[in-house]
Write a structure and sequence with these properties.
The chain is of the alpha+beta class. It contains 7 helices and 9 strands; from the N terminus they run E-E-H-H-H-E-E-E-E-H-E-E-H-E-H-H.
Length: about 220
Amino acid sequence: PPVGYRPKRTTTGMRHNGEPIFHVKWEPDPELRDKVLHAFEMYASGYTSGEIIEQTGIASNKSSLCTIFGNPTYIGERVFNMHRRTGGRVGVRVGYNDPEVIRVPDAHESIVPRDLFNKVQQILGQRKAKQKRGVERTNHTFVLSGVLWCAVHGVKLTGFGNTQRRYYACETLRRGGRKASDCPLLKEESLESFVFDNIKQKVFTKSRVRCILRKYPTVRLLS
């Protein structure tokens, strides 16, 4: 069971040979249920993931916390068929809203009220959409992606990041991490300034501009 619940083994009947039939059901963990509920309340009130993790201790990182907030187990649902074979891979996890996922309501006692859970889902969706828009915007601003190459690995440098931090990196580093490459991350602003300054100084020289103007007399320079 996820954090906040614990398994409870109960006897549901007897077999013909006299042996008991056991059934395992999830029940709220008395030591953790209030912390889980408090985490949902904090998130709905605008607290950051770091603040929630520090005060409740129900997760070790932001990713784990988001998994908790999206889990319908906390409103009493039992979820099945979350993992399946996809493209030759076994055990691929799908989302809770996948049409083939089975959700059984009232399977156990809930920890989080449904209205609070729905509010948290709305906030999660809004933040996810905002992050996606931010990434889409920045993807179109990396004008040097695919133009520069890594001298060590012979692959392209591509841009990545969000609205706060943007870098160019060797594709080997982006795909394999630090185990595959120790190439540095290059800040977008610094690298582009360096490249464009060199272009201005070494490509668009006065002599070359004069040649262009003589060859194409209809061209006019903008001030």
